[in-house]
Each structure stands twice: as C-alpha cells, then as structure tokens.
Design goal:
By secondary structure, the protein is mostly helical. It contains one helix and no strands. Keywords: Membrane, Transmembrane, Transmembrane helix.
C-alpha cells in the first residue's frame, strides 16, 4: 500500500470522474434525441 507516497495522484481522477460521467450522459441524451426525434 503506497497510498501516502502519492495521495495527490488520486485527487484529480476523483475530480474528473463526475465530469466524464456528465459528458457521457449528455452524449447519450444527444444521441437519443438525434436517433429518436420527438
């Protein structure tokens, strides 16, 4: 367990994950709107 060695390396990942999920969600929604126009 070398967590205390580089604890700052995990922070950016945890900060980016929400943005990645948000971008993926937006992309899926846009795809659904494009494929299934109301």
């Amino acid at each position: 367990m070398k967590q205390p060695n580089e604890p700052e390396q995990k922070k950016p990942i945890a900060y980016v994950i929400p943005w990645v999920i948000m971008a993926a969600f937006m992309g899926v929604m846009w795809l659904v709107v494009e494929v299934y126009p109301c």
